[in-house]
Amino acid sequence: MFDRLDRYIARNVLMAMLVVQALLLGLDLVINYITDLEDVEGSYGALQVFLYALMRLPWRFYQYAPVSVLIGALVGLGAMASSNELTVMRAAGRSLTRILWGVMQPLVIVIVITMAVGEYAAPVTEQYAKSWRAELQQQGGVADRGGGWQREGDNFYRFGSIRTDNTLIDMTRYRYDGKRLVSATHAARAVRNEGHWQLQDVRTTRFKADRTLTEQHATQPWQTSLDPELLRLIITDPDSQSISDLWRYAHYLGDQGLAATDSWLYFWQKLLLPLTLASLLLVAASFVFGPLRTVAAGTRVFYGAIVGLSFKYIQDLLAPAATIFGFSPIWAILTPTLASFALGFVLLRRAG
């Protein structure tokens, strides 16, 4: 089923994808490290910023997979086209379809690895990295800019992060009586013990008509129906949640009568990732066999970057459109994917 030529094509394309992925991750690591240095203060120093960037590499790997597939395929096939290897294969009777079969083989490996990273590795490392940073910044008196909000009755909560051992970091509760703010409580941590929450290092400010009162407690019980699993979904950004988590959280928001467009959007984006990668690989192959077969390697990479950015921008534009016009978020993902398939098939048909 797979002959030596198929394996040769697959190996060249796969190696190019890996090199592109490594270059993108390295560049992203440097840029994010430099950008995050402005957050250095107290216990969160330059070394901690670098470690935080390293912890987030699985998530970055997942995010860059489509671009790596597109540009990697352009580079790998482009190198074979520049050395006339593809021309020799065609002259020897190798059909375009059979060459494409060899090109598609490494995609299976890429899809399996990428989906595994997105479903199992990235959510865990993102949760750990953000809770680790939040604790360090809390020690230095720096407010964490991430987290999530949740309403429960007359209480509005803001949660900074949650550790893998279900310890909440940096929780603030605002209690209202109608439209009037009654009290604001901040806890450095909330620990789950035998099914009950215990707040630690608690500071409460009560707002009276003519004054404010402040109370401090080392520990304080917290009565709530929020469990660690739900809190993790509330706090974690949708783009770093697993497919199964997005499914559960989208249904939870729907049961609460809240909009779940973002959760469904990322759910379909991750579930349909194999189709997305296949469409981009087909576009890359069609470019090499079609309009870009005689251009320089740098030009191919440039056009690949343009196509990849256009693909992303179309998805980003369709995402808010799904909310405004009320169509299913799945079409925000499928539309550019189907357009890529159509473009690839048209160009290949002309080349064949």
UniProtKB/TrEMBL annotation:
Part of the ABC transporter complex LptBFG involved in the translocation of lipopolysaccharide (LPS) from the inner membrane to the outer membrane. Signal peptide: none annotated. It is a multi-pass membrane protein. GO terms for biological process: lipopolysaccharide transport; transmembrane transport. This is Lipopolysaccharide export system permease protein. InterPro entries: LptG (IPR030923), LptG/LptF_permease (IPR005495). It comes from the Bacteria. Component of the lipopolysaccharide transport and assembly complex. The LptBFG transporter is composed of two ATP-binding proteins (LptB) and two transmembrane proteins (LptF and LptG). Keywords: Cell membrane, Membrane, Transmembrane, Transmembrane helix. Its main location: membrane. One of its GO terms (cellular component) is ATP-binding cassette (ABC) transporter complex. Belongs to the LptF/LptG family. The chain crosses the membrane at residues 12-34, 61-79, 99-122, 271-289, 301-324, 330-348. The keyword Cell membrane applies. It is found in: Cell membrane.
